## 1
Amino acid sequence: MKHPDFDVVVVGGGHAGCEAAHAAARMGAKVALVTLRKSDPGVMSCNPAIGGLGKGHLVREIDALDGIMGRCGDAAGIQFRLLNRRKGPAVQGPRVQADRAAYRSAVSAEMAKMSALTIIEGHVTDLLVSHGSVSGIILEDGAAVAGTSVILTTGTFLGGTIHIGDQSYPGGRLGSDGSIALAERLRGMDLRIGRLKTGTPPRLSAKSIDWAGLDAQPGDTDPVMLSFASKSPVLRQVDCAITHTNSETHDVIRANLDRSAMYGGHIDGVGPRYCPSIEDKVTRFAEKDSHQIFLEPEGLNTDWIYPNGISTSLPEDVQLRYVRSIRGLEAAEILQPGYAIEYDFIDPRCLSADLSLPDLPGLFLAGQINGTTGYEEAAAQGLVAGLNAARRCVDGDPVHFSRMTSYIGVMIDDLTTRGVTEPYRMFTSRAEYRLSLRADNADARLTSWGYEVGCVGEERAEQYQRKAEAVEGCTSAMKTVDVLPSDLAMHGVKVSETAKRRSLFDVLSSGQVDVDTAAALSPQVAEWPEEIQRQVHRNALYHTYEERQARDAMALERDEKVAIPSDLSFDGVSGLSTEVKDKLRLVKPQSVGQARRMEGMTPAALLTVLSEVRRHGRRKA
Amino acid sequence: MADTIFALATAPGKAGVAVVRISGPNAKAVLGTLGVGNVPDRQASLRVLRGHDGCILDEAVVLCFSDGRSFTGEDVVELQLHGSVAVVRATLDHLSETGLARLAEPGEFTRRALMNDRLDLTQVQGLADVIDAETEQQRRAAVAVMGGAFGEQVSAWRAKLVRAMALLSATIDFADEEVPVDVWPEVREILSGLLRSLRSEVDGAGYAKSLRQGFEVALVGRPNVGKSSLLNYISRDEVAIVSDIPGTTRDVLEKPLDLNGLKVMFLDMAGVRVTTDTVEEIGVDRARQRANAADLRLFLRDSDADEDFGVDHKPDDLTVRTKADINADGDISVVSGEGVSDLLVSISDILSKRVEKASYVTRDRDVRRLTAAVEILDGIELSGHDMPDEIVVEGLRAASSELGHVVGDIGIEDVLDDVFKSFCLGK
């Protein structure tokens, strides 16, 4: 069968693949999404939740660029919670519990809406390469799908192995014979490959759980959506429940540790420290006699429950015994045992900041294959790869995400500059400009820019424009309204006797009053919609810090602007140590700023790099 | 536009000549603040440099290079000072107090030269080695100044910063997990301890002060033992009223002298003795305080029966017998001059050793950064720890970056390591 030619071919229909295909299509590219089954797009293979701290920030950024994860999550949301509600807005993250089936159909519907996007069912066996560049893929039936750019989002298919107790078998999304050639081609490219692992808990039957005695965890009463475009939940809202392991649970686990794949010495891969298996928890925190478990429904019309907090690689019979030692789960039925999966990943330092592999022009990698974990991290990389794969087809410059303006930029820079030692997950602590990079202002940071890039549609751009104008109007109202100390005192705010009159904006930014008081103090402010007032309040809270961070960022910009030409090699430079040369060869920093952030970089080495860049420029001039 | 930077270009310590380089758009304006104008380009000019209060800092050879024709490619001013630690110190202090320029980071001059195409590669490589050495030296020097105790101190600061950030980060990034709801009792304790320790470090950074204002050497001894005579002899200047009536010197007299390149302030004390005269008693008291606080004490005696009048002997302090011309066992005599120059050599040796320990370029930066960190932590404490957690973490990050070249960089991984060691996180 002959497939028509495409601009961008995306391999894999997970969260990275879907976001990549959709983004490339928004950019005007003709896109093929190749996946094993047409029903794959939107499958949540791990826990049924999207968002959270850092992760919720990523979803908002994807959404601000008109990506699909946020709005699909809202469409499928059966419980909404804004995490860190009692802390400042910079560290609040929206999270949603999603109905798996609803999420999958929402994603499918989004894909179907894009006329330039074709979903092809098939096994990819190899890449097509011509003149040293990638030119498409080959399917198991021998058919070729030609494309100018190819994005691999194949998750754990490289050397994936599933472990349950002492049993193991090859696994992973494409872990069949068909993918061997593709895997061999990647292995043949002299890339650095490492091994990671991750785990899942056993899935339980809701009917078999005694809910009566368990604490319920309800969603927020005023739900905060993932997407800037969503108004309110669509589906019926449900509670999660909380239970705990106990000393009996721990005894069962301890007595069978030698039967765990992880503790039985079957697994070499490095697991994430923030997502330990229950074996890990019991061993490393032996003094704790109880661990929390969240029982999360996987949907409104399903019997499946995801017990968050007890991922494991123990044999099935042990899983059943420890599960049944837990309160509320005494008669629980396991629908699917928990397992650990071990897989190869490609050292992301091999990638450029557009997620392409310089070793094979036209090939992009996104998602778990780059050493990350999580739907949101995968989707964000998919977006970056999709935009850049499409850009490449029209000979455009790469779309660059800076760590000063987005969490996406933080992640891409962390991955490509510093690499990973465990599955990479986003935390708000990773962003040094955390106070400026908030979930609430992702649209202000990215939507207009995305419109220029070409991935934001008219509707979204106009919607944002209206909001931006309102925020600006309300801000200038707050800046022009002066407040007397006596006005503040009337509203119960403590003011010193020497206090002077200040603008309402300054008062808000000092954190002394809330929005309601502000509105009460000024009719000009009160006439703006409440949501706009709240946004101005959030901006005001960090106003002084943002200014300071902007100054810091400017100092860094200097180095970011000194580009390192891609054809510049440092191999023959005598002033650099072998170690630094190796790192430079691997990371291929694109700017002096990126080189500076590399591990093991010294001021002297940086100076030598800089001098080479200057010399190179002179030679060319 | 680049800002203006300065640094000592020659090796720190006593030397024949010390070169201070200033580079950037304000270079000539900075020279103006030293009371020097109209220096012709690329010609050595001998000029008197004056501080803010008009006092003479040094007489120096001044060289100006205009942008495009200088080492860095920017406006450059070079000051060739006398190689005295005190002179260099005072000059560097003056420069940073102008607010027109700041102390350069390691390699910054070279970097500018490079950006302006003023260097070729062989030069860069030679300089790169120096910079690496300098960066490493900075850390080691900072630690070496105070010896092993300081090293422990630094590790403790680092551990405290990491711990406080880890506690707060755990409650921020793992809000829906099993972390303590309120980590503030521990954070508060850590931060006040850290602030206390940093503050005492800043207050005690006495080397810097001694170098700038001169080391104080107190002359201690009973009345008429010959303190004022010794001072007059060394300074060849009748600063003290010399008479043989006890109690003549009621105020503390200060006499600055250049001793082998070191600025030394000799303090001539009121004769320390028991007195009934109220006015004189004040003088005696003041003398005792100053003597105890001085960098070095010189106990003068002319008989075995002498006492110390409440002035403590500290390590390195010297005891000398005066009036060698009339006392057979005397060490020095201001009449014959016997032993005086040996005494001065001993004093300058002791003080020079202290100077060597303080690699003062490093210390200068350290003190500034320590002070900045103290100010940040102070802000947090002054707020009554009532700032939002994310803003406190921001402050801690800023403080860590100020302390970074002493305690080492603290990255997100260091914080996460502590978080995952302390709390069982993860679903």
## 2
Amino acid sequence: MTYGIDIAGAEIRWVRLNPANTSPSDKSACGRIALEANASGQSIKQALRTFFSSKRVKRFVFPLYGQGVRARCFPSDKVDISELEDNVSWEAKFMLAYDKHRDVLSFDPLRSVANQTWVAAAAAPLETIRAQTELFPNSPAYTDTALTALANAVLESKWGQKDVKILHLDRNRGFVVVVSHGNPILTQEIPNVKLTDIKLDKDALSLWQDELKLRRNFLPQDKRGLDHFLLSGEAATVAENAVALGKRIDLAGEVFNPFEGTQIEYEPEEAALYTLAYACALRGQG
Amino acid sequence: MIKIDLSLPRRREKLTALQFILLFVGILLGTALIAGICLVLQWNSLNNLAGEIEELRARRDSLEVVSAEIIEYEEFHERYTGFLMAMDEAGVWADKQLDILTRLRTDLEPGMRLLSASIAGDSVVSWVLSPSNVKVARYVEALSRSGYFAELESVPQGTKQGLIEHKVVLRLR
């Protein structure tokens, strides 16, 4: 079984996915562990140690986010597979401001079109990775990024082949991903998020409308026409937020439910909290 | 699905003080145990060696005794051989003297008497009494034919008991 574990500010969210051949009584599950407000690294470590011990967690994936974590899809010159790593590494210097002395780079070739290979690449400072990895008592099976996890959550859902924009918004963090026909064309972390109230009031809606419109400019001209706006995270526990924010950016707004069509038992109003944890658990299985 | 993995190889965790002490004590005990076993084995082999040395020493002593006995035997054997040779030589000389005396007696002419004979080195001096000088001359001639003597000489010494006393000097070949 694989756990996706998302440390989201005041709580730890986890999703457990069992392999297909396990008994029906051993169901996949999800849950939350409350942390103290402004929990220190030591108390997070302690909470994780208790959780790992009680659930006997062996295999897990967690989403990396924060200072300097970035991800992007871009077309790379089509080269021989043996040269792909060097080629992507060189192109990531321009696309992701990748510095080989400071960052760790990972990439995944998605598809080839004409003379180009589309790759999804992510880079993060070594120190950021180390700091977040050391919170866990064991080494993770994989270290994903919150941005690629959010993209994966959409790609693996019914929205995967549509043109959608998803905003994952928690009290202290925010991520925007735009997926166009199976390709993540925009993946950005929104810095300095401080959501005081989960129910977005008029001012907050205006602020986030501006933020989303601003980020629309990063999209190519021919990709700006989107079908839907999806809201995930703590902000999505209030369903009106998704509709109101969608209306502000002229899109049909909806709460994203990562568990739709799965066997996981969950509270419907909390499903959107587990978007990143679920995507990480999926990553661990794949 | 996008497959990104930014995992780092996890650093080895530092040993706690207790783990360190346990490891240290474990290494210490292990080393002491191995050293102890080695010492016992060494002591055992030294003991064996000492036993072998004692055995060799006893054998050496017994060999020294045998060697001394052999030397003594050889000396004795040498002396014995010398003695046998001397006995043989003495036997030969005695036989020769007996032959000479027998010859001196058997070659006497009728009426002649052998008074005495002495053998010293390669010369024989005999004293005889003879009724006549002719008989002494025949006697000396008979002796010379025996092949024992190289030079023969008879010297009359006067008369004794009515017979002529002669001193016969003979030189052995």
## 3
Amino acid sequence: MSALLDIRIITQRQLRLLTRVPEVLIFSTIQPVMFVLLFRFVFGGSIDTGQPGGYVQLLMPGIFVQTVAFTLAGTASGLAEDLKKGLIDRFRSLPISPSALVVGRTLGDSMLNIVVLVVMALAGLAVGWRPSSGITKILIGFLFLFLFGYALSWVGIYVGLSVSDARVVQNVGFMVTFPLTFLSNAFAPTTGMPRLLQYFAEWNPVSTMVAGCRELFGLQNEFGATAGSFPSENPLLMSIVYMGLIMLIFIPLSVRKYKNASN
Amino acid sequence: MKSVIAEDLVKTYRDGEVRALDHLSLDVEEGTVLGVLGPNGAGKTTTVRILATLLKPDSGRAMVGGIDVIKHPDKVRQIIGLSGQYAAVDEILTGYDNLVMFGELYHLGKKQAVLRANELLERFSLTESAKRPIKTYSGGMRRRLDLAASLIVKPKVLFLDEPTTGLDPRGRLEMWGVIEDLVKGGTTLLLTTQYLEEADQLADEIAVIDHGKVIARGTSDVLKKQVGGERLEIVVEAAHIEKTQAIVSKVSGNKSSVDAGIRMVSAPVSTGATALIETLRELDAAGIHPLDVGLKRPSLDDVFLSLTGHIAEEKEEAK
């Protein structure tokens, strides 16, 4: 019971940080909206998707996934900052369970994604995105996105505690998320990639998430499912497996790392 | 009763390459203040981190409030407060938000946490800045808030790790005042510092540590006596330094030293005021008029020098 209370207090702290530093919320929202607009208008005209409604239908799930993937960097750099300033020492000297502290943080950081996803969806609608599968499936799609961000924030905890400097963490975060999101079906079909990369791209959890969301948002052509590999045939199942694996590995790792954390 | 006991603590970093604690033992009597004094890298922070359950020693034993720190860290956390150089508060949140959050994390309940926060803000003269983010606070205010956060549940044992490092003189004096008040209330306190006068001012007993072990302990008077009584200091004009040196050496029976920059001749003396009068007579007879004379009790700096053979030097703090 008291663990739940602790989780709530830490979650509240993460949310309060957002209201105290509105810039974080503003820029976390502006950047993905900017991506929506740039990709929609720069590539949208020249990529032929063979899809009614054009490129933006395929683009939006890709950008959603890319954006929630950046939760990893956000959690990691926030945690590294707290560690450097000694706040983690203070938390760890309190009579509360270390898992409550990390669970609260991952939850708080993931909440930010709800706001960001809503704003992006609105921006998408404004530039022609029209999901056609009905409200239930659309909501399930967003639930998948939220959970993916949540799973990755556990990786963020581990990275944040392993790398000592917040700026380095930010870079590491980008170094992981950029290749992962671009070596996927998120922005362009994987068919144009060299054979080896195609395999990587199809097994990439970002691709299964994107393909899964495309399916849930009502698209026929999922843009890149070509080699007939298992993940591209069963993107939602594979996404669930990936999220489960990530949490199974990184929750215990991160909690243990946190218990022994020191600046 | 001993509130804090550390026995034979050993802690090495980087696979044994850096030995932060080398069989360190100390204890603190209930209701008293122990000042742990030493230069950067002597092992002060490591000691505090082990006692405050943040770090496990490689070997050795530690008890706080009668509870084994290594076996029951969760129980120890309920009775300690930690504040200092590295333990901190949230800079983005306000002082009030911080204290309420920590109060809630101690499971006081929202209402009690708010009451306690206001009480502590009042007590540390922070009420006016309660609703401002910590990052707008001065160094002294920040330390006071940090200290307040460690007092939320009235800890049985308080650890303050270099509470005034980096503060300006005014901030330091304020902090000393706050800590003195606390100690009057009977809190058991272990305080680390690299300022000799701070240990002198605040601590009942002082443990001097160097290279990860305690090299001396006692009250500041006892430590000062270990260095050997008082020191005679005479300032004369440059031309008279040599003659004065001879006289001081003769009277004191000790080798005198000269600080040419301030033209001061000094030597340890065992007979105090008598030596002073005798020296002045001889100087007068030699036609030398001293510019300044004095009898100085040794500072803790002198203690450190005579204990370690070197001035309190800094080495890279192992973290």
## 4
Amino acid sequence: MNEFIEFFSFADANIRFVTVGSVLLATSSAVVGCFTLLRKRALVGDAVAHAVLPGVCLAFMLSGTKNPFILLLGAFVTGWLSLITIDFITSRSRIKEDTAIALVLSVFFGIGILLLTAIQHSGNAAQSGLDKFLFGKAASLVGEDLIAFSMVAVLLLVTTILFYKELAMLCFDKAYAKTIGYPVRGLELLLTTLTVFAVVVGIQAVGVVLMAAMLITPAAAARFWTDKLSLMLVLAALIGAFSGVSGAYVSYTAPAMPTGPWIVLIVSMIAILSFAFAPGKGWVSRLLRQRRNKTLILEENLLKLLYHLGEEKQDFQTSYSLQQILEKRAIPKKQVSAGLSKLRKQGYIEKTPAGWQLTLQGQRRGERVVRLHRLWELYLTQYLQLASDHVHEDAETIEHIITPELEQRLMEELGYPVLDPHSARIP
Amino acid sequence: MIIQVENPVVEVHDLTVSYDRKPVLWGIDLTLPAGSLVGVIGPNGAGKSTLIKAMMDLLPAGSGYVRIFDKPIAEVRNRISYVPQRESVDWDFPASVFDVVLMGSYGKLGLFKRPRQADKDAAMEALQKVGMQGFANRQISQLSGGQQQRVFLARALAQNADIYFMDEPFAGVDIATETAIIELLRTMREQGKTVIVVHHDLQSATEYFDWVVLLNMRLVASGPAEQVLTQHLLEQTYGGKLTVLTKVGELLRKQEFPARES
Amino acid sequence: MNAFWIILTGSLVATCCSLLGCYLILRRMAMVGDAISHAVLPGIVIAFLLTGSRDSVPMLIGAGLLGVLTTFLIEFFHRYARVQADASIGVTFTWLFAIGIILISVYAGQVDLDQDCVLYGEIAYVPLDLWITEEGLSLGPRTVWTLAVVTLLIILYIVLGYKELFLTTFDPAYAAAIGISTSVWYYSLMTAVSITTVASFESVGAILVVAFLVAPAATAYLLTDNFKTMLLLSVLAGILASVAGYYLAVWIDGSIAGAIATVTGIEFMLAFLFSPSRGILIRKKQLQPVQH
């Protein structure tokens, strides 16, 4: 706990720097990742991330220093080269994109590993720390490095904001963007460059191997909360930033722990929770909606049933016992009881000594369900030429879903009918 | 105009098929006569391919059932053949024409068994029927569209099934191939086979098929070609969309509604 | 002798990976192979913690199961949570891989695995872990035996299921129509990939397996139009890379697995440029579709 307070008071200047740095790194890759995700090229980022390694090693071998700008340049060159190679292979041979990505990713990484191990074995003392590129080093980012990478991150964010409209159009509708005179080629080039830069700075936080997560995961999570691109960018940035801070904290409290995997674990958990629980799109909320539908169907069926009983007697003011209700339709007794008591609470039915009785409100709603049922049956027989003995099943579902507007529309199209295909009156 | 037949080869009963909960076919009810050339016709997005896929049980039905030869499909798989759309496979696949045609025997062979000489002879014979015997060793990547279609047809022929489902076999083929295919289909009909063809060219439909199914999200008509291909029924098939139907379909998808109550 | 064992190990890894890789790339599932190879890591660590060894059947099975679970997860996210397909792959494997690395760090004392091994294996140490019988007879490195069994299993699987694998890869819709279960062959293939990945882990690491899965198969795909030839060529390319890679690594004193991956890349480049039928530098008249 002490450590927690110590860290989050940001009293230590070092902690302040590291936190700001990690947040910037994670945010910039999350923002750029949104665009690559929307262009369905999420995994390309993975290839770029792996391809950065040989660049870093070559830059070190050629320069002999770990100057961040030189390493960055090397990373940039091979990162770019990997993208060009993927495009070249897919356009000039029958190799498909997924194979090209996997091929470039693994071969570039293999070369990187070969070079890295060769450097390590060469006994050059200056090399120590190069392997930090593999899994990230949020906490040990200091001084010159931090300033360099943060600058690039800020530049990335600013560029994205400046070109927001153009990039959005590119992701949304490339063909349309072309017709209205956007320089599509140039924009693609810009996005590619942004991706490479995002990877180059992002690996400082999580490393080469897990960089793909920083591009893909915040964007995929944010996508579940909103349909608006601007909001999605902000959310992805926030998720990235949060995981960045967490990463810095982990590095601070447990220096032996690899930072990258912790950041990725945190951001993945956020994403998986979003997939499950995001309102609207999440898996759970969809299951809930399905359950609500079931309840709705049950309740409306009960109202319909009581209405049918009333219709037979031409009297809606009679009460019916649970037994009578169950005889009319085979619904499990437990469900019926639960449904009835719920309907009572909502004021659609009343409990009388003799059983259950529709209120006026309940009668109206039951009537509407019956009306929709019969209207839909009529619609199916008239417009879909279905036999009248086949339409009932369909109408059983549709009666619960038709909106008032559609109801109006149906009435119009069917010419305000009086009788359904079974010659029952449409109430 | 929906004509039902006695002793049908295919019986579709109250079939509803949905993609992502949105019904693309509503309550299809039809029967098809044995030994006929059946054309399934309708505009783009009418659900033609969906219908034949659902008939073969390749897509789950939301409601209803299909029976072929008066049996559930699982029991008659070895009597069914299918010619998928040409674009559905990757023609860059490293396989020769003969390799593909030989696949026709795989269903009957069962697990672990390799094709025998008789299967190879049947494959060669099937290639002959489509006029491709000279191409047996040709790589499939080097075929023209028409030739690709013939290879698919030969594969189905090699299977020697009793009922054939073909998805757009005339799409994008040259005139010579089209004539050759229709000749072949007619011979098959003479042998008592039933061929169900998804087709989108109205002009040739009267000439090619003796039974026509008109489809647009729902069944518009099913019956002998000359009775079905009327101005009135075609207008119903191709004319305005059923907006209410489409909107209800959208609602079902958005609300995650079940296709059937239980 | 060491060189012999190392090259043999590399060749066995190359053989099973290349064979399965042919199916992966033709099914456009190369990135799923990549995902599985990352995602088996936590399975390996957990199996290691439980059994205390690397070359055990529980290890192969436990970690192999996780590989299959990965494909389920990817499908689940995609189909039920409706995550975009590529994002679903990306999220799943990075997540599982991160868990694996964290487990390794947490149990650093108990697990004889380190991060380097995860990245590029320890093929150089393979000859050190010998299988010695009770009579004191040395039967050679354990890893070689494990890999040999796995390779045999993979070859058996491909020979026995040849026609089904061929058909479900080429035309799944037709396969389903004539009654061949596409999902049985899909999941059995994924199981095979998982087991291969786990078995290869010690020698080439979790990440470089991808190079062995994809590159030789892609090279062979550019050289032939016959599927059986493609299988054979990919194995040849894989073995050749193992030999050449070993000497390259010795020459520049670097990681052997890294060097083999580099050579597989060079092989692909050569095929891409100079393939007799499809090389982009060969100005041979391209075979055009014959109009009929």
